[in-house]
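Bit of a strange request maybe. I'm writing a small parser for structure token strings and I need a real example to test against, not something I typed by hand. Could someone generate the tokens for this chain?
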Amino acid sequence: MPRFVPIEVKLSADAVSVSKREVTFYGNAFNNRDRQGHRILPGAWTKTIAQQLPKGEIKHFRNHEVSIGPMRELVQDSYGLLCTGYCSKTRAGDEYLEQALDGTLTHASVYAKIVRERAEYVTEDDPVTGQKVETLNIGEAILLEAGLVDLAPANNLATLVAVKNLAGSDFYDLLTDLDYIVKDFALSCSTDRRLTAEERRVAKALLGLRKVLDDQGDILKALLAPGDVTQTSGSAPSLATPAHAETQPDLTAILESIRGRGQIHL
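Reply from user aminoacidic:
Good idea to test on real output. This should exercise your parser:
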């Protein structure tokens, strides 16, 4: 599941090599419960560093949107994940390098997919308030990119991208991770403060989603009814066309509703 994990970094002149066009920063701190209720455990990046980094599959980005260059080096030390990213000789790379040097950019963030089998929620005492809080301990994650950001991300829902294919793996991953996403949002919005306008919009959208799921529950169950999916020898699974096809549910309304919310682009 994709996640932004924001931390504040202190960049000094020796963290920026102008001659090498490299910027070094901590992508995350180990054993630190962030404001989203996540705690990345030591060693969580071991496999992704060994498997993805040599293939050039981990990138150096600004704001998780602008490609700055390749990631040169990733090291897990006693503090966290130390990243060294190259800044390509582009306008974006030049601006990024200069603003890292002059102190304009002071936050770093990683974009990763949590390995669900290596993550679990635990209940613990908040060291400040003493109240019980839930924390997602992350034992393993697949790093996609990391870099400096202009502002710390407000919440995890800001990381969602448009789904390109309803039947694709991206859409499946989004749905299977939705329970984590909703829980993270709820945990990050403290009940002892007023929600921002953006947080209120997100909360209302989630409540709207609950209504859509309630309304369409019977249709989804019908789609999973025995006999709806067939497979002939040597062929890919396909939807069957039963004799009572005229009674099959029409999904046009729900698809148009989702498209109208700007979540899907086909």
